[in-house]
Design a protein that fits this description.
This protein is an alpha+beta fold. Helices cover about 25% and strands about 30% of the residues.
Length: about 190
């Protein structure tokens, strides 16, 4: 297993829909193992294949909820259904999220409170997870990556302007930028 470089916003693979996974083999298993290692090293709670430069509709996730239940897995060729998004003021305390492809930054973003994730695992076995709260947020964030959408693309003002300024200031927003957890000094 290896820790992979994580692409930073601006890399084309992050800004286009990913291709369906069609081959389930040892190469795919190795990619998923490397993605788990990379996510854990970052540290993060999710990582999509485009974030490590791979054009494939899959993501890994790993998070422990308030009751101590560990949620860890891979979603390949997933589908996602969402509850209606609530209206109202954003709560920066409970609705802020970050992204390993915009390292070190967090902004509030409204997401659906509930989600149903369907996909297949590495053995092509179908599964379904009904998620609420933070797990539903993780699934929405990672699923967005598979459609070429970063959370910064969904931010409202004044946060959209702030993240655009940060991207410019750091020289991001163009192809070829990445960072490697444990190697590069970036506070993700």
């Amino acid at each position: 297993m290896a820790v992979l470089p994580i692409r930073i916003t601006g890399d084309p693979v992050l800004h286009r829909p990913a291709a369906p996974v069609t081959v389930f083999d040892e190469t795919l298993r190795a990619l998923v193992a490397d993605m788990f290692e990379t996510m854990d090293a970052a540290p993060g709670v999710g990582l999509a294949a485009p974030q490590v430069g791979v054009d494939a509709r899959l993501f890994v996730y790993g998070w422990t909820d308030e009751e101590g239940t560990a949620w860890r897995g891979v979603a390949i060729n997933p589908e996602l259904w969402l509850s209606p998004t609530e209206l109202g003021e954003l709560d920066p305390e409970t609705e802020s999220e970050g992204c390993l492809s915009i390292p070190g930054e967090r902004f509030p973003l409204r997401r659906a409170r509930r989600a149903i994730l369907r996909g297949v695992d590495l053995d092509e076995r179908p599964f379904e997870i009904v998620a609420e709260g933070w797990l539903a947020r993780i699934f929405q964030h990672e699923y967005d990556h598979l459609d070429g959408v970063l959370y910064a693309d969904r931010l409202e003002e004044p946060h959209a302007k702030a993240v655009a300024r940060i991207i410019r200031k750091n020289g991001w927003g163009s192809p070829g930028r990445s960072w490697t957890p444990g190697v590069d000094d970036i506070d993700a």
